[in-house]
């Protein structure tokens, strides 16, 4: 086995570059890579077919058994880090002592292939907070969706906060990015009905029929979906609320709608472990 390089200085150019990719969205997109923390997240990325270029680990934290398990699957080079360097580089408090440099995907809508005749899709238009987008991806995984389409994304999917709040579910659900116009055209061409979440919805959410091919669309917490979505929707659906606040977190609203669709479908594709 080749000798493993060791880095003990936070001023090392390789460490500075990793930090740069973690913090700068534009440079992540330009370079086609992103930084991913955590044993579980790296495992999910490998399971999803992502290619890891390099794994950086702290021997004092990552055990030999886990290191060997990742090494067998990743087939990439390793760099060891001192505890000080790892702590300086780590974005989270507890990530099991390993960080990967991973090749990003383009997530083009034209590459999104749907299986089955009646797919269930989540559309998230212009999610304004990385944490909300990550929570939506986590919800999509829990509901075993066929795909997530992110319309008019302002940032990028590989923002560390997206990955952290998704707990790795960015890698478990097919995800595509597009403009609103492209997304609507894609759905229309495949006869997928759009159900738009709206405070002024004309249909109560549990009275809509999600048995056919369906895309449930949610907008921002501040302004909701744009008119392009509500105008072309099969129905605008509303979740009745009785409290003083007339809205809820977007991932919570999406979960209510998606699991109603799953209930109507007899919870197909959802099994308890």
Automatic annotation (TrEMBL):
The keyword Amino-acid biosynthesis does not apply. Gene3D superfamilies: 3.30.1330.30, 3.40.1280.10. SMART domains: SpoU_sub_bind (SM00967). Residues 35-108 form the RNA 2-O ribose methyltransferase substrate binding domain. It comes from Robiginitalea biformata (strain ATCC BAA-864 / DSM 15991 / KCTC 12146 / HTCC2501). Belongs to the class IV-like SAM-binding methyltransferase superfamily. RNA methyltransferase TrmH family. GO terms for cellular component: cytoplasm. One of its GO terms (molecular function) is RNA methyltransferase activity. Keywords: Methyltransferase, Transferase. Transmembrane segments: none annotated. GO terms for biological process: methylation; RNA processing. This is Putative rRNA methylase. Pfam families: MRM3-like_sub_bind, SpoU_methylase.
